[in-house]
């Protein structure tokens, strides 16, 4: 696809979707922030010496991140088959690649921290609430509930990850911070797709808002349980939990769906 002149937001709605949901747009975005990195960070970035306690907390946090990325990877791939149009299918195929890379990078980061069997460690340490969220998300995909699955994955899960990753990257060790900042750039795309797609679906069928709101209410408590545990692992003050909770709610509330 040729590069269009001017601001992409000046395009008419259909051309805008053709542009931002395309592989060409994805290639340009990924090349822009992955160039010169290996496993999500600059190879020249030096590891910061962590205390045993800090290292253990970071491992627990990364294990939770792996569950979230696995959930998004499996759900994105399943959603391609039920997506209502070509543009959504193409976008989700780019998201599958994103989520697979995120998972790979987090697992590699665990190995860099000395974890010999990262997948076993993930299973042992990950939050039960996050595991339940993953189970429920995949049930929505399997039931072919497009609107509910997009809400759960591209609005709720991605908004949670964006808020947590952004907060964590500010105080993380240099290598982990670089990994998180790269992944955050993908999360913005994923959230934008979810908000736009679900917004269009609900504007065309406003009666679905009640059903979608009930699913949001069901999932919100799993989100806040996960957030509570993650804040504890990071050793952050509970005021940060309130801040992250507000950031998550602001993102989800933009769709006007009351939980």
Notes on the protein architecture:
- The protein has helices at 13-20, 23-34, 52-82, 86-112, 118-125, 128-142, 146-171, 174-204, 209-234, 238-253.
- It has 259 residues and is an all-alpha fold.
- The protein has one domain: Ferritin (Up-down Bundle), CATH 1.20.1260.
- Residues 1-9 have low confidence and may be disordered.
List key phrases describing it.
259 residues, mainly alpha, Ferritin, 0% strand, disordered N terminus
Please tell me the overall pLDDT. Answer: 88
Distance N terminus to C terminus?
Answer: 40 Å
- The residue ranges in which pLDDT falls below 50 over 5 or more consecutive positions are 1-9
Order of helices and strands: HHHHHHHHHH
The DSSP helix count reads 10
- Radius of gyration, in angstroms, nearest whole number: 18 Å
CATH topology: Ferritin
| Number of DSSP E strands | 0
Annotated CATH homologous superfamily? Ferritin, core subunit, four-helix bundle
Q: Can you give the helix content as a percent range?
A: over 70%
Structural class based on helices, strands and sheet pairing: mainly alpha
User: CATH class, anyone?
Assistant: Mainly Alpha
Largest sheet: none
- What would CATH call the architecture? Up-down Bundle
The gross shape turns out to be globular
The number of distinct structural domains comes to 1
Strand content: under 5%
């Amino acid at each position: 696809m040729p590069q269009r002149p001017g601001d992409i937001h000046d395009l008419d709605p259909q051309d805008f979707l053709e542009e931002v949901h395309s592989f060409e747009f994805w290639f340009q975005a990924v090349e822009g922030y992955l160039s010169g990195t290996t496993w999500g960070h600059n190879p020249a970035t030096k590891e910061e010496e962590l205390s045993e306690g800090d290292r253990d907390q970071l491992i627990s946090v990364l294990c939770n991140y792996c569950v979230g990325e696995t959930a998004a990877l499996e759900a994105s791939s399943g959603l391609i088959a039920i997506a209502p149009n070509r543009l959504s299918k193409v976008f989700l195929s780019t998201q599958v690649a994103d989520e697979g890379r995120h998972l790979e990078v987090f697992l590699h980061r665990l190995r860099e921290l000395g974890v010999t069997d990262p997948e076993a460690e993930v299973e042992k340490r990950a939050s039960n609430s996050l595991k339940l969220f993953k189970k429920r998300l995949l049930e929505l995909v399997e039931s072919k509930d497009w609107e509910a699955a997009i809400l759960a994955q591209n609005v709720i899960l991605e908004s949670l990850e964006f808020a947590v990753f952004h907060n964590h990257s500010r105080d993380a060790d240099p290598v982990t911070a670089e990994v998180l900042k790269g992944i955050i750039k993908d999360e913005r795309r994923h959230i934008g797709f979810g908000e736009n797609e679900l917004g269009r679906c609900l504007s065309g069928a406003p009666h679905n808002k009640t059903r979608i709101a009930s699913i949001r209410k069901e999932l919100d408590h799993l989100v806040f349980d996960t957030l509570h545990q993650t804040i504890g692992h990071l050793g952050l003050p509970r005021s940060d939990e309130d801040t992250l909770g507000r950031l998550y709610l602001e993102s989800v509330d933009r769709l006007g769906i009351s939980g």
